[in-house]
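Reopening: Putative non-specific serine/threonine protein kinase still failing for me.
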Amino acid sequence: MVNLLSCLLLFLLSLHCFVACLAVNTKNITTDQSALLAFKSLITSDPYDILSKNWSTSSFVCNWVGVTCDERHGRVHSLILRNMSLKGIVSPNLGNLSFFVILDIKNNSFGGQFPIEVCRLRRLKVLHISYNKFEGGIPAALGDLSQLQYLYLGANNFTGFIPESIGNLQWLKELDTSNNRLSGPIPQTISNMSSLEVLKLFSNYFSGTLTSDIMHHVSLFLTICDFRILI
Ligand SMILES: *[C@@H]1O[C@H](CO)[C@@H](O)[C@H](O)[C@H]1NC(C)=O
Ligand SMILES: *[C@@H]1O[C@H](CO)[C@@H](O)[C@H](O)[C@H]1NC(C)=O
Ligand SMILES: *[C@@H]1O[C@H](CO)[C@@H](O)[C@H](O)[C@H]1NC(C)=O
Ligand SMILES: *[C@@H]1O[C@H](CO)[C@@H](O)[C@H](O)[C@H]1NC(C)=O
Ligand SMILES: *[C@@H]1O[C@H](CO)[C@@H](O)[C@H](O)[C@H]1NC(C)=O
Ligand SMILES: *[C@@H]1O[C@H](CO)[C@@H](O)[C@H](O)[C@H]1NC(C)=O
Ligand SMILES: *[C@@H]1O[C@H](CO)[C@@H](O)[C@H](O)[C@H]1NC(C)=O
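Support: Ran it again with your exact input. Result attached.
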């Protein structure tokens, strides 16, 4: 009898879990649209009226300028908005784009801290935010972007250290943190990034030198090395 009861309890528990899991997986293209509208709402200047007219709920989100969706899931796959003089902060709601692979907002005037919510996007392969006005630290959570292949943070106003967690990015091919105000030692963990081909660290305020470990790695794997590091 006790056994039967505990079995029933277990069954009810699993059913509850199943229903709960379904509930959290209800994201769809509508969720993606609201995430992009939240992104748009924090843009304070759009001098060429690129998004203000085009990103309208009267047209399908996958047809918005800069947005592409993938055919398989019908969800937002990439957002590419370069050279558009957009000003504002990046909405944390981008972290809801669960099928997001490419975020490229190179050469705009986005500022403030980069939202750590974006580091939840486990499918993200390209993060290109160079030539903006981001400030504050490079979030350690970037190390959670396990599929990341290209990370461009150059020409911003980032301060603080490069987080050690960067070494977790085992598929990263290119890392550019040049032209910021970063300091401290270059983390040893960089030597663990076995896919790395391009590393640009110049024009910062790093201290110390590249250790022999990193140098060894560099000579083994890097095809282009640009080590004009300001110490
Ligand atoms: C997305 O899901 C919501 C409920 O979570 C639903 O109301 C809406 O119709 C769905 N949209 C599409 C396009 O399937
Ligand atoms: C938005 O821009 C895209 C790409 O330039 C274009 O194909 C589409 O027709 C535009 N939509 C509206 C509503 O202006
Ligand atoms: C952005 O501007 C640069 C420099 O003017 C140019 O080389 C590049 O092709 C532009 N990119 C786009 C997508 O317009
Ligand atoms: C940035 O975009 C502007 C046009 O909006 C262009 O004149 C400039 O050359 C671009 N700079 C880079 C580094 O791409
Ligand atoms: C999206 O994310 C934000 C903050 O990251 C959250 O507050 C919001 O409820 C989410 N919206 C949807 C529709 O999932
Ligand atoms: C970086 O921050 C400093 C100090 O707040 C400021 O003077 C400078 O204009 C900023 N540079 C950029 C490119 O945003
Ligand atoms: C590199 O990775 C190995 C195992 O994956 C780990 O034992 C080691 O501590 C890592 N080294 C650094 C410098 O993070």
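The chain has one domain: 2-221. If you still see a failure, please send the error message rather than a screenshot.
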